[in-house]
Fold:
Amino acid sequence: PQIVVANKIDIPEAREKAELLQEKLPERYRPVHLISAVTGEGVRALMQKVGTHLEKARRAKKEADDAAGS
Structure:
């Protein structure tokens, strides 16, 4: 899985460009997570998304290992 992130959204032009990016990206790369490292906006939601993806990957690996008899 891939997570697309646009940073610097505390700058108005960057937010506008990130929103255009979201519109133009293929569906499989959406949503674009908008964050600002300066203000912290969107960072918590991004970390939750990363955690969710990691947990799914761990579960899938465990199931594959169990199925292989490891």
About this structure: The two ends are 24 Å apart (CA to CA). Helices lie at 12-24, 43-68. The mean pLDDT is 93.
